[in-house]
Amino acid sequence: MKRALSFAALLSVLATFVAPCAQAEEIASVNTNFRFTGSDRVSVEAYDDPLVAGVTCYVSRARTGGVKGTLGIAEDPTEASIACRQVAPIKIAEPLKQKADVFSDRMSFIFKTLHVVRIVDAKRNTLVYLTYSDRITTGSAKNSVTAVPVPEGTTIPVK
């Protein structure tokens, strides 16, 4: 008996293949709204840029608690903030796209996603990182941006 994939299952499978490989490491979190079933919180996560050794981005974002949050079916708020820093000597192994998703993570069961995008500002020899969220049908204008200047003598190779 053949079973057709649901739209949600198909999206989940596709996200597995197209998602960038950076993984989040939760640094800390603070509770913002107490609930007996699990508090809402703001978490701070670190993401190492997979193509730029020596750059780490710190993203703070709201996480919904409660029963739905515990089960992973709650929709997190769209607010997020980002700060990227040089934490070691910068080494770029291969030419970078002028604009590329470095990381994405779901903010709801299916339709809402947080993105971290790397933008190369070749004129200023700087890496710019932008965070925003989107949905399949609508996005959010809420965003945050940060920049990491690449040390003099190191040129950013661009595809």
UniProtKB/TrEMBL annotation:
Residues 1-24 form the signal peptide. Keywords: Signal. GO terms for cellular component: cytosol. InterPro entries: Uncharacterised_CreA (IPR010292). It comes from the Bacteria. This is CreA protein. It comes from Caballeronia humi. The lineage of its organism: Bacteria, Pseudomonadati, Pseudomonadota, Betaproteobacteria, Burkholderiales.
